[in-house]
Amino acid sequence: MKRKVIKQAGGAYTLTLPIEWVRANGISKKSEVDVAVDGKSLMVSNTGKVGERKTKINVDDFDFRNVYRYINALYALGYDEIEVSSKEDISSLIIKSLNSLIGYVLVSNEGDRYVIKDIGGGCNSDLDEVFKRAFQAVLLFYDSAIKDIFGKKEETNESLRVRDLEVNKLCLYLQRAINKMSYNDPIRGRILFSYSVDLEQIGDEVCRLWRYNILNKNLKNDSLKKIIELSKLCLDKSFDLFYRPNSSEIEKLYALREKLRKEVESVKNPNKMTYQALRIAEGAVDLSHLTLMKNLE
Q1: CB contact at 8 A, 80 and 119
Q2: CATH number at residue 256
Q3: Looking at the structure, do residues 135 and 273 belong to the same domain, yes or no?
Q4: Is residue 1 domain-resident?
Q5: Any residues with CB less than 8 A from the CB of 201 and at least 6 apart, and which?
Q6: pTM of structure
């Protein structure tokens, strides 16, 4: 939407705020807002209590997968209440979908109307802590995969699905926290959102590696173990860099990645897990690039 700039006495310029945003955020004549400059853009943020975001969707023409996807997307966007309407009974589908979303519950079901609400309190009080939990969940996921692949060999495809769901749940929670105005700095917010997406992709790659092993249990050897452990070391170092960034440690991460690449090239008959481990390490290096951007901004 466009707003006309009005010149005031003394050389000042003003513009009006959209009334919908004013009402949703409880802005009054005594309110203060944050204004951040981003090149040609201005970011106006409410420093006080944020009003609830509500929306409605009709899913009559959706297949079941799309119902799940739309609810996930609205959750990540930061909506606090979703009213879903459907001619079919989709209560069990909604309940199953909400198992992967922290704070969301089905609060009412009257006829063809389903109301989903966030009862978790918004989740944006400490974004750095949410990020740390999500990253640690991915690290633990990879640790568990390595122990099972080269040790216990107890996991099944179904138990892996449950583990993967928990990792995705935290990554989605992180995306939601970012979108609920946890950072007034728009550049920092964009960097961290990119971080959350890349982190989720790394978790998905760990899941693919683990699942491939479950379906093909005779592919393990010492060479593959070394490659996977180097891959995990890259991810560990990327996590440390987020909290203690310095140029020498970044160089060590890149050196580790190069060592891993050479190990992969030396394998005579590499299998799919070899390249999945390499992609995880490449993703860890990409995270370090975002870390550098965050600290230079």
Answers
A1: no
A2: 1.20.58.220
A3: yes
A4: no
A5: 283
A6: 0.74
